[in-house]
Amino acid sequence: MAGTLVVQLAPDVWRIPLVRDFVNGFILRDDDGQVTLVDMGVKSSGPKVMAALAVIGSAPSDVTRLLLTHAHPDHAGGAAHVARETGRAFTLHHDDAAYAMEGSSPPRDRSFLLGRLVDRLSRPGRDFEPVPVERELVDGEVLPVAGGLRVVHTPGHSPGHVSLLHEDSRLLITGDAIFNVRGLRWPVKAFCTDFRMTQRTAHVLGELDYEVAAFTHGPELRDRPREAIRRFLARHRPD
């Protein structure tokens, strides 16, 4: 496969460029070799996730946890493939779990014409292949992943959207709360369930403590990312 299959973000933490840098997944590995995968990209990305696993010297049998930041087709599109390859089911926030299991996206923001149009095309199983779910996340819990992975519920982009803070390496995975595509920016308004809520809840990301910010859309920030995100949020306060 052409291109870089993994980008190391911290010891035993990698970004997987699934559609160049525009769509990303992540790998976290425990000291004992257990692997957690976060977000599986679009429908064609499943094999890339598995190839990335091989690059870091891990096998499908090492995967003990599969996570989704939310149930959108550019994150859950490859999920069913990865579930079959690893024999594992997924964990995601309660408010997105039912959508993942039926293969449909949560409603889009109907205050935007594009949101209304996309909603008309959405059908269970049409958005992405239904995803097996074994567990539901709650805000604030710390998963026993590679030294501790804290769940930060940041709804708005979807009802159950979460960001993830890896406490051991001080690395933040923003999910789609904020993009880093040609600079920091909001996700596409019409693809959010409630864009104004997205703006409000993203402000919690400025209060967390991290040294690297990783994005599901765009490359990571390693140089004072918390300050950059706080400046962005200060300039883009919700009405």
From TrEMBL:
Any matching Pfam family: Lactamase_B
Top-level taxonomic group: Bacteria
Q: Which residues form the Metallo-beta-lactamase domain?
A: 22-217
Question: This protein is called what?
Answer: MBL fold metallo-hydrolase
Q: Which organism is it from?
A: Terrabacter terrigena
